[in-house]
Amino acid sequence: MPAVSKGDGMRGLAVFISDIRNCKSKEAEVKRINKELANIRSKFKGDKALDGYSKKKYVCKLLFIFLLGHDIDFGHMEAVNLLSSNKYTEKQIGYLFISVLVNSNSDLISLINNGIKNDLASRNPTFMNLALHCIANVGSREMAEAFASQIPSILVAGDTMDSVKQSAALCLLRLNRTSPDLVPMGEWTARVVHLLNDQHLGVVTAATSLITTLAQKSPEDFRTSISLAVARLSRIVTSASIDLQDYTYYFVAAPWLSVKLLRLLQCYPPPEDAALRSRLTECLETILNKAQEPPKSKKVQHSNAKNAVLFEAIALIIHHDSEPTLLVRACNQLGQFLQHRETNLRYLALESMCTLASSEFSHEAVKTHIDTVINALKTERDVSVRQRAVDLLYAMCDRSNSKQIVAEMLSYLENADYSIREEIVLKVAILAEKYAVDYTWYVDTILNLIRIAGDHVSEEVWYRVIQIVINQDDVQGYAAKTVFEALQAPACHENLLKVGGYILGEFGNLIAGDPRSSPLVQFNLLHSKFHLCSVPTRALLLSAYIKFINLFPEVKPTIQDVLRSDSQLRNADVELQQRAIEYLRLSCIASTDILATVLEEMPPFPERESSILAKLKKKKGPGKVPDMDEARWNVNGNTEHSENTEPTNKAPSHPFTDLLNMNSSPAAGASLLVDVLSDLSSPAPAPTTGPGPTDVCEEHFSRFVCKNNGVIFENQLLQIGLKSEYRQNLGRIYVFYGNKTSSQFLSFSSSVTSSDTLKTQLNVHTMPVDPTVEGGAQLQQILNIECLSDFSDTPVLNVQFRYGGTLQNIAVKLPVMLNKFFQPTEMTSEDFFQRWKQLGVPQQEVQTIFKAQHPMDTDVTNAKILGFGVALLTGVDPNPANFVGAGVIHTKNTQVGCLLRLEPNPQAEMYRLTLRTSRESVSQRLCDLLSEQF
Amino acid sequence: MIGGLFIYNHKGEVLISRVYRDDIGRNAVDAFRVSVIHARHQVRSPVSNIARTSFFHVKRSNVWLAAATRQNVNACMVFEFLYKMCDVMTAYFGKISEENVKNNFVLIYELLDEILDFGYPQNSEPGALKTFITQQGVKSQSKEEQSQITSQVTGQIGWRREGIKYRRNELFLDVMESVNLLMSPQGQVLSAHVSGRVVMKSYLSGMPECKFGMNDKIVIDKQGKAGSNDDGAKSGKQSIAIDDCTFHQCVRLSKFDSERSISFIPPDGDYELMRYRTTKDIILPFRVIPLVREVGRTKLEVKVVIKSNFKASLLAQKIEVMIPTPLNTSGVQLICMKGKAKYKASENAIVWKVKRMAGMKESQISAEIELLPTNDKKKWARPPISMNFEVPFAPSGLKVRYLKVFEPKLNYSDHDVIKWVRYIGKSGIYETRC
């Protein structure tokens, strides 16, 4: 800006402002302003034309009055007149007034636009700049309509001054933000990209901002910017700090430009050109190297600028997620910041590490910092940093360190801020469940959690612990003992009481042998807390009491007395009253047998996705969830976890790798049996989807690719039904043999045979069955399956029995396919395509084009893909007709990520199926399996 | 029960802070300043609730008086007390201003100790207070005087001490009224009322019993029924209907209720005997006839005529007419027959001042207002023309019929007392729409 000469200082304005500042009261100020406004009005009204100076002065005063909060309804015309002045200061004030005060005022906007147009067309760079600034400041639709087409040509014109180019780029950026539809994309875009090569760094900086925004809008148009950006970046990072003169900020070369370039590069995947890629890697390495150098200045600005560039570089490295060395280096760099004095740096380091932890290459490196992070959690003064530390701990947790991390989080929970407690509780609950190798540990952890932060434990958490205890026989006794002990504390949280009531009601008998926890003691313990808790808990406790009556007949009179008391029978709450009356009545009239039936132990809960995880996701809000679990676990198909899981698998006493253990006793049969029986008694619905029931097993077999239950074999004697469950690399098949005749089968036996190769890939363990099957009866057999590695063969089920003297031999292919060991994976579009590209090696992809065998119905196809075991990702593929899925195959040794894409072509009635997995054999097998289904 | 009383200057600085109860903390002082005095938007309500503390405030010139309490008090009581507090301070040191408050620090604290005890209002009669809270040094009072003060303060008649003696027994009575009016441009009265006060200054010896009579319609009607018929008809015209009235504490309310007679033992010195309000048969001293003509977009012609509507022998004084001008006025030309007129830009109004004006006269002003065309589509709201004046009669028509003084113990009779009666009528909000 040209210096304001002495004569240009507006004395009247200064006097007016000082008058206003000296006003004693609001009223005095209003009076002074009214007076001034009247004066200005009379001046503007005056017949003799005002000279530019006084016009500028009065417009300035009006602006000042407006900024004080008063309405200004005149003077616009004078301001517009100032635009046509030739003096910089007058023009400037005119533009200032317009940018501040203009609204979509129809009669003036054309005048203003005209003024701006004149200035844009003038050769004077300062005037052009003023006009561009005005457009950018106002940024209204009208302005965009009038100038959006003109500005790009100014921007790319060869003879435009640098400063004008800079303004034009920023102005265009602003218009693109306010009304993106009005900014035309055209041939100028290609030329804009070349501004990255401009000598003037200011222009480059402005252009980078513009290109970044535009590249997000249409990435393809600006793909060429990658190479230019990399070249520019490398020139900056390799330059000596003095080379860039004005653009060196406290010894850091052009920090803003570097940051912007790095941001721009984050819009794209890693460059494919090897040379470019190595050049970029070099740059990033240089930036990381520079971070190691001793600081050139003690000033905070120096370190801020340096760190800004560094963090942006790390963000880019994480975004690319392809260079292991860089990732590890970034991680180490961040590790240094973890102990930095600057709170902001610690925060940023923790935040970046969170994302690093989800990368397969750096996960291990992040884990080395666990002690520092835990220390940060304990000693950090700033709550937001502690929060980040919790996030990072959550992200870096895996089986090897879960115990430590959960313990630390629990101890932190005791003095954590109330605002983040609930989130920590959820995280602890999830980690404890996910990485539990030992149920006693899990139960201890959750009970501890309830004890420490009962108020923040949501329903889902304690539901979950009950579900798990009920589903796991071996932990029930321990759980009962632990809750009994926990309940003995003088003050315990209501949630603990709920868990305690439920578990003791179910499994109190398991600890009743100990005189210290005899039935009466248990009951008294629960009942001592009864009056302190809310209605829902009381209702739950009443149910526990009636369960006690069943478990321990000896406490029946005591409990009946309690139920009979007025405080229950006449309770004001209807629910409690009803329960008390019904339970009392039930206990009086029902025989022990009926009681035992009614109050039988709860059947196991059907397995479903942990609701806690869903809750955490919801809490974090969409998009913010670090999908690190899935991302890390799945699609890259890495093997670190399988290594970790191996030792635990080998321990025979704990043969589970997850809480959802499939190998334990077949107690769960009862409820499932009911399901299947109903299925069998009306076999009609099952075969409707396929061709009618025949003896050809293969057809049945292929139906089982996408479903788990149904009839696999049927002849006039025998019907074989299947119900199977799979979880990770484990499966369990319930085989139901139905005798369709009226006489019994004798010496019934069944076995599973596998080929030699298959034996090394798949473990099938058969439970022995009863040798006789009565006429019309059904026999159940359980097969436990463990997948060791990927396989393509199928095991065969051989059934032998004697019917009416003749030996019957039946062999059925067991529908155990590789896809049964799928775990679905949800991911975003970006993630998907990134993974897709990473699995780009030709061997990893299998593609097949086949003719549709069934009508092409979207819903049916959806159901089939879901049944196949992968997650169906909607909104990923640009073409909504295509089906996209992702999942991970769990085998004992490895996990194989798999992405599939099914493109239907309704005209030709053809499908194209593309599969990409990290293993060739898996791709082929899955493709074979799936292609037969449509 | 008032918890605390604070006085602030216009900047919100605390001049006086007196806390009576523990439930009001020091931070209450700041709370009021922050949320009321320095509030972003002007606080209009005189009662504000801030953090479960209620603040009642009145403003006198640039000084804020605020009473704070955390209890559920009678708001009217608190305001009455605040007004009394203002009266007391005015009686002691004149106008309430920052300067005066600063100069009378000690006195104000002394007064606050006396008139408010643990938050309960006490005797706030300036006359009585002046006997024992003085601005001079404490005179060595004899035992008798001290006991007299005690008996007076604690006795039945707290507002007057015994043993007052004057050589000349004099009595001044002022009837001060302010007349409020809102009139339509066509001359139709939209609302009008008079609020009046009877202010007395008495210099009487002993403990005299006074009786005040005026042309109250109820009293006159009663007498009219008792007396002859034609007499009643004659006086009926001159009686006025009082809508409501309040009295000084010295007036015996039981007597007023039963006989509607106002009898009292007056305090010594200045006091306000009664306040009243009338809404019927008001004599409007002036009539304002506005004439506004818009000539195009940039010009406005205004003509205002005022007519005095009272006896020609009386003179109205300090007449001031405020004619609002549009917000985009850029110039004004004025012609007036009488007095002086000026365009005041800071108030957005033309102010026309006439020193004196006799009854049954009229005068006019005409103005040409030039306007600046604006972008604003809003139409000018045309605020009403307001007027100020002072007239030497009571616009309500109130007449003092008698004021009798009886002092049985001392030897002076009603005739020996010199009585002065004065009527002053002022304008309140006296507006005419245009």
Automatic annotation (TrEMBL), chain A:
Q: Where is composition skewed (Polar residues) in this entry?
A: 635-651
Query: What cellular-component terms does GO give this entry?
Result: AP-2 adaptor complex
Q: Which residues make up the binding site for a 1,2-diacyl-sn-glycero-3-phospho-(1D-myo-inositol-3,4,5-trisphosphate)? A: R11, G12, K43, Y53, K57, Y58, V59, C60, K61
Q: Which InterPro entries match?
A: Adaptor_Complx_Large_Subunit, AP2_complex_asu, ARM-like, ARM-type_fold, Clathrin/coatomer_adapt-like_N, Clathrin_a-adaptin_app_sub_C, Clathrin_a/b/g-adaptin_app_Ig, Clathrin_app_Ig-like_sf
* Membrane topology, record value: Peripheral membrane protein
Keywords, alphabetical: Cell membrane, Coated pit, Endocytosis, Membrane, Protein transport, Transport
List the SMART domains. Alpha_adaptinC2
Q: Which GO terms describe its biological process?
A: endocytosis; intracellular protein transport
Compartments it resides in: Cell membrane; Membrane, Coated pit
Q: Which domain of life is it from?
A: Eukaryota
The region called Disordered is annotated at: 616-661
What is this protein's function per UniProt? Component of the adaptor protein complex 2 (AP-2). Adaptor protein complexes function in protein transport via transport vesicles in different membrane traffic pathways. Adaptor protein complexes are vesicle coat components and appear to be involved in cargo selection and vesicle formation. AP-2 is involved in clathrin-dependent endocytosis in which cargo proteins are incorporated into vesicles surrounded by clathrin (clathrin-coated vesicles, CCVs) which are destined for fusion with the early endosome.
- What is its quaternary makeup? Adaptor protein complex 2 (AP-2) is a heterotetramer composed of two large adaptins (alpha-type subunit AP2A1 or AP2A2 and beta-type subunit AP2B1), a medium adaptin (mu-type subunit AP2M1) and a small adaptin (sigma-type subunit AP2S1).
Q: Could you say which protein family the record assigns here?
A: Belongs to the adaptor complexes large subunit family.
Cited PANTHER family = ADAPTIN, ALPHA/GAMMA/EPSILON
What is the name of this protein? Answer: AP-2 complex subunit alpha
Lineage per the UniProt record:
Eukaryota, Metazoa, Chordata, Craniata, Vertebrata
From TrEMBL, chain B:
Q: Name one GO cellular component term.
A: clathrin-coated pit
Name the residues that bind a 1,2-diacyl-sn-glycero-3-phospho-(1D-myo-inositol-3,4,5-trisphosphate).
Answer: K340, K342, K344, K353, K355
Asked if Aminoacyl-tRNA synthetase is a keyword of the record, the answer is no
Which GO biological process categories is it annotated with? endocytosis; intracellular protein transport; Wnt signaling pathway
A Gene Ontology molecular function term for this protein is: lipid binding
Query: Primary place of residence?
Result: membrane
InterPro entries given in the database record: Adaptor_comp_med_subunit (IPR050431), AP2_Mu_C_sf (IPR036168), AP2_Mu_N (IPR043532), AP_mu_sigma_su (IPR022775), Clathrin_mu (IPR001392), Clathrin_mu_CS (IPR018240), Longin-like_dom_sf (IPR011012), MHD (IPR028565)
Q: Which domain of life is it from?
A: Eukaryota
Report membrane topology: Peripheral membrane protein
Indicate where this protein resides in the cell. Answer: Cell membrane; Membrane, Coated pit
Provide the alphabetized UniProt keywords: Cell membrane, Coated pit, Endocytosis, Lipid-binding, Membrane, Protein transport, Transport
Assembly with partners or alone = Adaptor protein complex 2 (AP-2) is a heterotetramer composed of two large adaptins (alpha-type subunit and beta-type subunit), a medium adaptin (mu-type subunit) and a small adaptin (sigma-type subunit).
Give a short account of what the protein does.
Component of the adaptor complexes which link clathrin to receptors in coated vesicles. Clathrin-associated protein complexes are believed to interact with the cytoplasmic tails of membrane proteins, leading to their selection and concentration. AP50 is a subunit of the plasma membrane adaptor. The complex binds polyphosphoinositide-containing lipids.
Q: Which family does it belong to?
A: Belongs to the adaptor complexes medium subunit family.
Mind telling me what this protein is named? MHD domain-containing protein
Q: Native species of this protein? A: Pagothenia borchgrevinki (Bald rockcod)
